[in-house]
Automatic annotation (TrEMBL):
Listed PROSITE patterns: TPR (PS50005)
Protein name listed in UniProt: Cilia and flagella associated protein 70
Renumbered residue ranges of the record's region Disordered: 784-810
GO BP annotations, alphabetical order: cilium assembly; cilium movement
TM regions (residue ranges): none
Highest taxon listed in the record's lineage: Eukaryota
TPR repeat residue intervals: 662-695, 894-927
Key words of the record: Repeat, TPR repeat
GO CC annotations on file: extracellular exosome; motile cilium
SMART domains: TPR
Biased composition (Polar residues): 792-809
Length: 1052
């Protein structure tokens, strides 16, 4: 049988002893001078492991106990391992006082306690060696030690002969830490009764794939609000008979939750101020060992019901009867339960990738089997079972809390006798003294009105924390995601291509010639620098100077040095360019080759010398080049006016200017999406990622393409890469949520949508510089979950958030996020982006999630986006109905009227489109569609002969940025108005922006014909014909103007 397999038959279980060796006590102090007689007791849970013999020490500095006991542990038994992780070793030190007069037995006083955590043994260690501080009990002589002296401590060693668990089992197991902090705003009657009451928290927890046990924390104590809210505060061990307050604290734990998870907060205020409210404090941590089966069972339960019940109730400590003989009295039904409430904790965040913590405040409601079944699919709670199975142990374990209210004489005298009846008699004595306090238990129970509805009326809530040492769902690291993205889309090399072969050899020869030429010129100047001004410039004198230079070169050895410098580069040319690496067959072949080589070398030498000696001045006239921004504007206008081929031409020119700019590929891919060329669009997005593996827009859009084809695994990798790089990318979270929705994973889908909503709120708050109120987080399904609104705090590599992708000044990012700045619904923003990107399949999924819980203020935007979706699919009738509905919700939204104008324009109803466009232009708030509105409204005016209005609209379009289309329209309107000079200026500007537009040349020819400029008219007409002018009406108008003017067509 393998380890971690769950519960097994006791006969086949392997037992490993845990050996506890208490070596010595250090700096102990007795109450009767320097001489002290003491012994110690070792306990684990409810079991006493042993007591040491009496040890006397005259100086109290070192007490050699050398006491050894052992604890049997079964690594095959999950219950045994669970007891080991949540129960520490409790070591109690007792002082044995001398016998006084008339005393039958020596008095024994508990002077200190300490606890030892055994968790390292379950984590693979075999030895725990420590010197632990002894925590004094109230009135202990240890308290009287001087402040500058060493603390009283105990040296001990805990060992096992072999590791309890194998490394494989340790890796497969997990540890869940359940922390109950405090309950706030509890009803007055809940805490106003006798101190005999025990305040209990219990919840179910799986210990194997088939079995659950109740977790009980019964050490709740009524406290003032200020003490309950004190932070930081150490956590305590659960259900321990610990008299020393410091010994109950778990070392290294504070109630400060980390950022490795989600925090959930209940935001409703109680009925009265919290400072005046009653509180019950626990601050107790209960550890749960989870093997592979238990962890799988817990995850399955969370996935099925999400909500985990945590029950809270009050019970009484049973008293003693006359014939009880020291035994605890219990009724047949067990201990009574009153004020039974339940809090439902949404544990779904533990199934989010990388999340380890759920921490929050949860409302307490009255317990009901019906409500429990509806929310958790459990038929009954665990409170009654917990009391029936562990009630007696629970009562004994809370004695430390209750006896802390009694005088020291009642708590410090403890019998050494190991027999159970005597110990029970001592405990019953404590209970008897408690019954004589101010309140009587039976009377208080009868007087209290156990109305569980008081929890809701008082607004009671409880603060809980669930932490797992290892996240249930592994979160892929940034490095892992980068590697997977590189496998899907290999990156392009960013290094420039190195020149090899013949070209490198020729360039090396050029460099050597340039260097030698520089040295020759310097040599010649040095030789003639003395009498250079007096030398004659005739032919004989030049030849004489040349002969002198050759003599100097030969005599000084410079000529030979120059030849040696050229040898290496010439050899490379022979090998790389002429591919000659072997000997020649005969002299003729060698002679032919040398002639060919000489001609080539002379030609290359002359090229270098001409560059050196050239005196031509470089032209200062700059070459006109259209920028990428202008080309993008031209492409946008061409797309608006339906000239898609022209738009493709402009976008390809943008890419050719810089192929390593990923944004240029993305712009082209977005255009291909809008023209329903999905294959080419995905190629462009992949090329953008290949150029830049961290490009957010490219990764998101490539993920969208994968969602369209239902390649969810590939989409998940790409989008996780975005959220890893930029955890505040709202669009990436939304599309990732749609991926999880397609995979039927509702928990991760809600996580993604919640992250998107938080990112959206943060972006809006930064944009407005004002704090935003977090509305209820919308889910992708209709189920509403209690437990407070979710506020996500996800750890992202140290919480260093990269710059967010949100509302920004950058135009490309604004395009990526859509054009809905007024709404806070992230799903609507994503839907709008997907519709504008012409991805109706994915946009419809996002809208179906957004429609489930729309606010009234968002219905106008929803119907507007729905109308765009219908327009994409050609359903103009339904689109018109949605636009009218949107205008009824918000008639002041200019976007609604702009798209209504677009709809009528597509439907061939120009008069109605004109009315909508004019209304859009009248709004003070400018729509993002204003460019399209201006161009299409101007074209309607131009078509209807309203040239003055058309001129105004084209000039308004030119005001934002001029393009050849807006300038051409302005020129046409001016020409029709007879304003030839203004028409020529506008047409010349259009021609300057793009000289390949045949229509511009055609209208320039008309203007020149009207102005009587023959040569310019003929030249313009020639270019219009050369560029294949296709407008028959314009061609006919030009022909008539040429007939009227008598010139203009050079073909006659």
């Amino acid at each position: 049988m393998s380890l971690c397999s769950g519960l097994s038959e006791s006969a086949s279980l392997k037992m490993i002893p845990v050996i506890i060796n208490v070596i010595r006590g250090i700096n102990l102090h007795g109450s009767k001078g320097d001489v002290m007689t003491s012994f110690l007791r070792v306990e684990h849970g409810s079991f006493r492991l042993g007591e040491s013999p009496y040890c006397e020490d005259a100086h109290c500095s070192l007490v050699e106990y050398n006491f050894t006991c052992k604890l049997e542990c079964c690594p095959d038994d999950v219950i045994s391992l669970d007891n080991l992780v949540h129960n520490p070793l409790l070591l109690s030190i007792f002082e044995v006082l001398p016998k006084e007069k008339k005393q039958k037995e020596r008095s024994i006083v508990l002077i200190g306690q300490l606890t030892v955590d055994l968790l390292p043994l379950v984590q693979g260690e075999t030895c725990i060696k420590s010197i632990s501080i002894i925590h004094p009990t109230p009135g202990s002589p240890i308290i009287l030690l001087p402040e500058d002296s060493q603390n009283a401590s105990l040296e001990l060693l805990v060992t096992t002969p072999e590791p309890l668990l194998s490394q494989e089992c340790i890796e497969d197991s997990n540890l869940l830490r359940v922390t109950v902090e405090a309950a706030f705003s509890v009803p007055d009657s809940y805490t106003s009764a006798s101190p005999q009451y025990i305040y209990v928290i219990t919840l179910p927890m799986p210990v194997s794939s088939e079995k659950e046990i109740p977790l009980i924390m019964a050490n709740g104590v009524p406290q003032p609000f200020a003490e309950c809210k004190a932070s930081p505060r150490p956590k305590c061990w659960p259900l321990r008979n610990i008299h020393a307050a410091g010994a109950s604290h778990i070392q290294g734990t504070l109630n400060e939750y980390t950022s490795h998870g989600h925090s959930q907060e209940f935001r409703e205020l109680p009925m009265k101020p919290e400072m005046e409210s009653n509180c019950i404090s626990w601050y107790t941590e209960r550890r749960c060992y989870l093997n592979n089966g238990a962890a799988a069972s817990l995850q399955k339960s969370i996935a099925e019901s999400r909500l985990w019940p945590v029950e809270i109730f009050r019970t009484t400590v049973p008293g003693t009867g006359k014939g009880s003989k020291g035994k605890v009295e219990k009724t047949e039904e067990g201990l009574p339960i009153s004020f039974h409430g339940v809090a439902f904790v949404d544990m779904a965040p533990l199934l989010y990738p990388g999340v380890q913590l759920v921490h929050g405040a949860y409302p307490v409601t009255s317990y009901s089997d019906t409500a429990l079944f509806e929310k958790t699919k459990r038929s009954c709670g665990v409170a009654r079972d917990a009391l029936q199975t562990e009630g007696e142990i629970m009562c004994l374990s809370v004695l430390s809390t209750l006896t802390s209210r009694l005088p020291r004489q009642a708590t410090s005298r403890i019998s050494r006798d190991e027999k159970t009846p005597r110990e029970a008699t001592s405990k019953m004595t404590v209970l008897k003294q408690m019954s004589e306090l101010e309140f009587d238990g039976r009377e208080s129970v009868s007087c209290l009105k156990a109305d569980t509805q008081q929890f809701s009326e008082a607004g009671t809530y409880i603060v809980l924390e669930f932490f797992v040492d290892k996240p249930f769902i592994h979160k892929r690291s940034t490095e892992e995601l980068t590697m997977k993205v590189s496998e899907l889309i290999p990156p392009r090399s960013a290094l420039p291509k190195k020149i090899f072969g013949a070209q490198e050899a020729v360039q090396s020869f050029h460099a050597q010639i340039h260097r030698i030429a520089d040295m020759l010129i310097a040599k010649y100047r040095d030789m003639l620098k003395e009498d250079a001004d007096e030398l004659p410039n005739d032919y004989k004198s030049q030849e004489a100077r040349k002969s002198k230079l050759f003599y100097e070169l030969n005599s000084s050895g410079a000529y030979y040095a120059f030849k040696e410098q050229l040898k290496h580069s010439i050899t490379d040319i022979v090998r790389e360019k002429y591919l000659k690496r072997t000997t020649f067959k005969d002299e003729l072949e060698l002679h032919v080759f040398l002639n060919e080589l000489y001609v080539f070398l002379m030609d290359e030498t002359h090229i270098v010398l001409h560059k050196i000696m050239s005196t031509d001045e470089i032209s200062s006239t700059p070459i006109q080049q259209t920028t990428s921004t202008q080309l993008r504007h031209f492409a946008k206008d061409a797309e608006i006016l339906g000239h898609n081929q022209l738009a493709i031409k402009y976008l390809q020119e943008v890419i050719l200017q810089d192929k390593r700019d990923p944004e240029r590929w993305i712009d082209y891919g977005m255009f291909c999406l809008r023209t329903e060329d999905a294959t080419r669009a995905e190629e462009c997005f992949r090329e953008a990622i290949a150029v830049d593996q961290n490009n957010v827009r490219g990764l998101i859009l490539c993920g969208v393409m994968c969602v369209i084809d239902e390649r969810y695994e590939e989409a998940e990798i790409l989008l996780e890469k975005v959220t890893s790089k930029d955890p505040r990318s709202m669009l990436a979270w939304i599309i990732l949520g749609l991926v999880y929705t397609g995979q039927q994973n509702k928990i991760l889908a809600q996580m993604a949508f919640s992250e998107a909503q938080k990112s959206n709120l943060a972006a809006a708050a930064e944009c407005s510089s004002q704090p935003m109120v977090d509305p209820a987080v919308k889910s992708c399904d209709n189920e509403q979950y209690e437990g407070g609104s979710t506020e996500v705090d996800v750890n992202t590599q140290g919480q260093n958030h990269p710059p967010q992708e949100g509302i920004t000044q950058d135009e490309s990012k604004r395009e990526c996020l859509g054009t809905l700045p007024r709404t806070l619904n992230s799903l609507l923003q994503a839907s709008n982006f997907l519709v504008e990107a012409h991805v109706p399949q994915v946009a419809e999924r996002a809208l179906s999630c957004a429609v489930l819980d729309l606010l009234d203020s968002e219905r106008s935007e929803y119907h507007l986006i729905l109308a765009k979706l219908h327009m994409l699919r050609g359903n103009f009738v339904q689109a018109e109905l949605d636009l009218k509905t949107a205008s009824q919700y918000d008639h002041k939204n200019p976007d609604t009227w702009a798209f209504m104008g677009h709809l009528y324009y597509k439907m061939g109803r120009p008069s109605e489109a004109q009315d909508c466009y004019e209304r859009t232009c009248d709004f003070v708030e400018e729509t993002p569609e204003i460019r399209t509105v201006c161009l299409q409204l101007a074209s309607i005016y131009l078509r209807d002969g309203q040239y003055k209005k058309a001129k105004q609209m084209y000039l308004l379009a030119c005001k934002s940025y001029p393009s050849q289309f807006s300038c051409l329209g302005a020129g046409i309107a001016c020409y029709r108005l007879g304003q030839l000079e203004e028409a020529e200026d506008a047409l010349s500007e259009a021609n300057f922006l793009d000289n390949s537009n045949a229509v511009v040349w055609g209208y320039l020819s008309l203007v020149c014909l009207k102005a009587g400029r023959r040569m310019e008219a003929e030249q313009s007409y020639k270019y219009a014909v050369k560029l294949h002018l296709q407008d028959d009406g314009l061609l006919a108008e030009i022909a008539q103007a040429q007939l009227d003017a008598g010139f203009g067509d050079p073909s006659y």
